[in-house]
Amino acid sequence: MEKMWPLKKCCFCFKLETGAYTLGILGIFACPLNVYFLFLTINEKKAETVPVPVKLYGTIWSAIALIAFTMLIIGSKKRERQCLIPYLLMNMLSLILNLMALTAVAIYLLLAGRMLIGVAILIGTHILTAWGVYIWMCIYSLYLEMIDDEKNQVDPAYV
Length: 159
Fold this sequence. Notes:
Elements: E1 9-10, E2 14-15, H1 16-44, H2 52-78, H3 85-111, H4 115-152
Antiparallel strand pairs: 1-2
Helix pairs in contact: 1-2, 1-4, 2-3, 3-4
Transmembrane segments: 20-42, 54-75, 87-111, 117-143
InterPro entries: DUF4728
Keywords: Membrane, Transmembrane, Transmembrane helix
């Protein structure tokens, strides 16, 4: 029986490198869109009470994510495992923070009597978190695969 961990394929059919590269490209396009929609949504609602730290946090987080996605692309193309570490750290931190924040929002809505939206947010949050953990496991599997490749590589000096 073939072992399940680490994962051998991304999205059950692509090579891990292909999945990492695709995720990096999608992430690079998503970061500027995230900042754009953050400011667009705030400006259209004329929410003058939205604090500047919220805008600043979103912009800084998107910049960090842009760097992590760029390094993910470089690491997957050049097989440099150290380049995968920023993505792995950023993604895990993001998953934990999003899970906590959105679960808190869902609980608040449930306690406020808005059952439908509270349950929808709770279910959606857990589905997206599960998907995020799966993607994280794919990139971590690529990282482990690169470590194995380095261990199995023969040093030309000893040949």
